[in-house]
Amino acid sequence: MTEKAISNTTPPHYSAADQRFHNVRPSVYLHMGWRERLSVLRRLLFTARSRMPEQRLPEVTPNWREFLKPDTKTRVIWFVHSTLLLNMDGVTVLIDPVFSASAAPFPFRIKRFQPSVVPMEALPAIDVIVLSHNHYDHLDRVTIDFFRDKKSYFVTPLGMGKTLQKWGIAAERITERDWYEECAWKTLKLTAAPARHASGRPPFDHNRTLWCSWVLQSPHETLYYSGDSAYDDHFTAIRERFGPIDLAFVENGQYNRRWPDSHMTPEQTLQAVCDLAPRTFVPIHWGMFTLSLHHWTEPVQRSCALAAQKGIQVLCPRLGEVVDSHSLSAPPLWWMPFVPEKTSVPFPPASQDTAYSENDSP
């Protein structure tokens, strides 16, 4: 199924010659000498503690009765980083679930700030698991193993089905989609959409599988999930094809000037949100793992300041809190007590295109 799907693919983001996917626009590769590479690696490995919270983040035990209550409004639980649980028109959708203690091939690397607010055993029955790509902070073997004997259905971009089958998920429980291909589940329509990123897990696996964002539509609402993506014109194209968008979950964190094709700065995130023009913006891809050199609160600080300047509605729920598609964050914002007293990141003006913190310097 997977090999046939890819072999029959002839869009501009796939090369049949080398059997790899790629971004439509040429990627930007920044040359780093070996000294800079070692410096970045050393800081990522040995200084992460200084960019993490010093005490446990506030949590809310999910109110499952409230979450599962029938409603035309989508109910949402953010399990931090990019893991989301939705009740959308009575369908439970789990997106990019990572419940492991780390987001790396080795358990001693890229550890969570703290355990998940609830164990996987406490989750309600999950109808659909949606995956955006195969990086470790989005595709977690331990979590997939938990769902191996459940009845949950998997929806993925092209190529990921082979991995899931290797991990014991039956082929009939997997649907793969290319960009702008859709599938239906009960009353929902799920459409894979473009993203500017990459994929890969083991050596020599670079870009063998596709990466994507997702548009989720019920009879009442349209939601957008960015997955991981650098900034490009696909956000405008998605709004033109699927708008108006009610709720947009857009990546906001783990950026660095050295990987401009992987993640967006807060300024780029807000531009993407303006392109999408949702009713409400939810920042994701922050709050639980340290995958870059900025302080863990820096992305949400900057994006919320920029959103306020632009008059954009923002929703930043607490860990485990049940909110719905019409909720808004009420001050005080829960992460503010964790902001360093002498933050090195001034709030940039709304007109500033791209800003990196001093932590991104060599």
TrEMBL record:
SUPFAM superfamilies recorded: Metallo-hydrolase/oxidoreductase
InterPro entries membership: Metallo-B-lactamas, RibonucZ/Hydroxyglut_hydro
Pfam families referenced in this protein's UniProt entry, alphabetically: Lactamase_B_2
Gene3D superfamilies (UniProt xref): Ribonuclease Z/Hydroxyacylglutathione hydrolase-like
Native species: Symbiopectobacterium purcellii
Coiled coil: none
Protein name in the entry: MBL fold metallo-hydrolase
Stretches assigned to the Metallo-beta-lactamase domain: 92-286
